[in-house]
Design goal:
Strand content of chain A: 15-25%
CATH topology of chain A: TIM Barrel
Largest sheet of chain A: 8 strands, parallel, barrel
Largest interface: A-B, 73 and 70 residues
Helix content of chain B: 25-40%
Oligomer: heterodimer
Number of strands of chain A: 12
Strand order of the largest sheet of chain B: 1-2-3-4-5-6-7-14
Shape of chain A: globular
Number of helices of chain A: 10
Order of helices and strands of chain A: EHEHEHEHEHEHEHEEEHEHHE
CATH superfamily of the largest domain in chain B: Aldolase class I
Strand content of chain B: 15-25%
Structural class of chain A: alpha/beta
CATH architecture of the largest domain in chain B: Alpha-Beta Barrel
Mean pLDDT of chain B: 96
Number of strands of chain B: 15
Distance between the termini of chain B: 26 Å
CATH class of chain A: Alpha Beta
Helix content of chain A: 25-40%
Radius of gyration of chain A: 19 Å
Chain lengths: 329, 331
């Protein structure tokens, strides 16, 4: 189905118990989580067609009222990206409430052109009962090996580690990973933290959800929520809440490499996404991480965090390796 | 409609049973359940007494084992399931796919309910758990309107339980990481939201600050009653405005829509609050019992009584109640 074979991007590393080449880590671009003007979306994927990411996730994952890009448009964008050698995955809506949303999901899950990223268990059900292979996104809870195995038996081919889990748990999950299942890690972006029936962007404008006037269009990177003493805390993105800080794992690439992670996900932001992809690509090619990190930090709107990966509060930042690469074996 | 009430300890369980709960749900004293609070929940000894007390009076006992184990801890969840099964409980309330897989293969005759923490909002999602693990009931997240709940019920292969009263999660349960973002501990991983271990009350010159792992959740002026810093119920600044950006401190109260819930086919009404006192459990159970009985015997003329509403407001967060997502304008 996919035309481009993965190519090695990383010199094989060896270590205790790792005498074989273990890694050809790929980059992906996750679905756009914000509501962007149509032309901004089209321009974004035109750039993405030529970027170093091999995998592109497409589709509206937050709000079914965001319809500037229609399902057939997503398919057309997907086909163009595929012609440029990308593996294209269609991402499903995360929180399903209305019957119309289920109808759209059923249509999405019946497509035979692209794999679907299930962001809710109902998509897993629709895909697995029709014998389709699928990917699960970060909001499908796979916290242990027994869950991973059961879903692998249902047709899971790739899963995204839930963002609140760290390297220690990832190591355990990787050690019992079923054959044929790829592991993807949310590597850069504001963290997807919560979903609600309520639209917080509309609420912040004193508007009801049913008459939101598409206020999300005014916030291409979401709208900032600060504490009463001015700390940048969360991002309101319609019914979704994200972290204000940008989660980034650049300096943990050697650890992720050693744990045989297959894919690193870059979550789109309104500016500099392709430059960020380049930075990660250079890191995978072995460039010196400190210089890359300095450049990366300049592209993050409100600064970085990486606490989840090192088993701390998600908003924290730390370089201390709670995890030793040598333990990977 | 069955009335399902919370019990964080033996006195609360007795209060629930004595005031008319049809079923009581409990948890063990560790992170296998989503109310993992200090001083709360059941040891093996108190659990045995609890099961006996409820079942001797013809009531059911459900055990919540509804958090998400990571590989290193999986054994604790197995032990919890085995212990509950050994004591002959009426059902387990589970959320994690791996835990459901274990329970359904080891104890094929044991009734399994799908916890609200499994975050299932559609009949297709319910079918996944029904077909794979034989679940017999589902508890829906507090994100659907009444008509959406009705739609799920018409297509669901199994009975549906919904929340009727208690603290309101405004985020879809099981997929909310706000707490671990601020503290490292979430309902999924640790069984607690905004854990007390990370809370700080701070007197300032002009009132009180409440903090969660250092993050200012709210500031209360002199004379303003300070609330517990639950992350989604603080006042924050968005644009030029400072307000309850996510939700006010308020509790869900469905007394006014009980006839509608009955009409759409809701099978059970759940009361939140295993962390609350025996007095809370007694009061809420008694009111909900009276209201459900009235609703079932005389649906057409049912009206929530003022005294019921007052009693529930007395034990509500911020003394306020809401219909939450059941009522479209809330959204």
């Amino acid at each position: 189905m996919f035309q481009k074979a993965p190519k090695p991007r990383w010199a094989p590393i060896t270590g205790p118990g790792n005498s074989e080449a273990i890694n050809m880590m790929k980059l992906s671009i996750g679905p756009i989580t914000y509501f962007w003007e149509r032309q901004r979306v089209l321009d974004f994927y035109q750039q993405a067609a030529d970027c170093a990411a091999e995998i592109i996730y497409l589709g509206e994952v937050i709000c079914s009222k965001r319809r500037l890009i229609k399902p057939e448009d997503w398919l057309a964008i997907g086909n163009e990206l595929r012609q440029n050698g990308k593996q294209v995955i269609l991402s499903s809506l995360t929180l399903l409430e209305a019957a119309s949303e289920m109808s759209s999901l059923k249509k999405l899950c019946r497509n035979d052109d692209f794999w679907v990223e299930a962001n809710d268990i109902s998509a897993v059900q629709l895909l697995s009962t029709t014998g389709r292979s699928f990917v699960t996104g970060p909001s499908v809870n796979i916290y242990n090996s027994r869950s991973l195995k059961l879903l692998a038996d249902k047709g899971l081919k790739r899963w995204v580690l839930p963002v609140e889990l760290g390297l220690d748990t990832l190591k355990d999950l990787q050690s019992a990973r079923p054959v044929g299942v790829e592991t993807e890690v949310f590597a850069l972006g504001r963290l997807p933290l919560a979903y609600s029936a309520r639209c917080y962007t509309a609420r912040s404008h004193n508007l009801p959800k049913d008459d939101c006037r598409f206020k999300c269009l005014d916030y291409p990177d979401g709208s900032l929520l600060k504490t009463r003493e001015g700390q940048d805390f969360l991002i309101l993105n319609g019914i979704q809440t994200q972290s204000a800080l940008t989660h980034q794992v650049l300096d943990k690439i050697p650890d992720l490499q050693a744990l045989a992670v297959d894919v690193l996900r870059i979550s789109p932001q309104s500016a500099h996404t392709m430059e960020i992809v380049d930075i990660f690509d250079n890191a995978l090619k072995g460039a010196e991480l400190n210089a890359l990190e300095e450049k990366l930090l300049s592209f993050l709107p409100l600064g970085p965090c990486n606490g989840y990966l090192i088993e701390q509060a998600g908003m924290q930042s730390g370089s201390e390796a709670t995890y030793e690469t040598q333990q990977a074996s | 409609m069955e009335l399902v009430c919370p019990a964080g300890n033996l006195p609360s369980l007795k209060a629930a049973v004595d005031n008319g709960a049809d079923a009581v749900y409990v948890g063990f004293k560790d992170d296998t359940n989503a109310r993992h609070f200090a001083g709360l929940n059941f040891t093996e000894r108190t659990f045995e007494k609890a099961v006996r007390y409820a079942q001797d009076k013809g009531r059911k006992v459900f055990v919540a084992i509804n958090t998400f184990p990571q590989p290193k801890g999986f054994g604790r969840w197995k032990a919890a399931i085995d212990q509950a099964a050994d004591y002959g409980v009426n059902a387990l309330i589970l959320a994690d796919i791996g835990v459901l897989d274990y329970a359904s293969s080891k104890w094929p005759d044991l009734h399994l309910h799908l916890s609200v923490q499994a975050s299932v909002t559609s009949a297709e999602g319910i079918s996944f758990y029904h077909e794979n693990f034989g679940i017999r009931r589902v508890v829906l997240p507090r994100v659907l309107s009444v008509s959406q709940v009705g739609h799920v019920i018409t297509k669901s292969p199994i009975p549906v339980e919904v929340f009727g009263f208690g603290s309101l999660c405004v985020m879809v349960e099981g997929r909310c990481l706000l707490s671990s973002y601020a503290t490292g501990r979430s309902p999924n991983t640790y069984g607690a939201c905004s854990p007390a271990s990370h809370v700080r009350w701070e007197e300032t010159g002009d009132g009180t600050n409440t903090r969660l792992n250092g993050v200012l959740i709210d500031h209360y002026g002199e004379g303003e009653k300070a609330g517990y810093p639950t992350l989604c119920k603080g006042r924050f600044q968005v644009g030029e405005h400072t307000f309850y950006a996510l939700e006010e401190p308020t509790s869900l109260n469905t007394l006014s829509i009980l006839p509608e819930l009955r009409k759409i086919g809701v099978s059970a009404i759940k009361v939140e609050g295993r962390q609350r006192s025996p007095a809370y459990v007694a009061q809420v159970t008694a009111v909900m019992r009276a209201a459900i009985d009235e609703c079932m015997s005389n649906t057409a003329d049912y009206q929530p009584k003022n005294q019921w509403m007052q009693k529930l407001a007395d034990v509500s967060e911020g003394s306020q109640t809401t219909l939450g997502a059941y009522h479209r304008p809330w959204q």
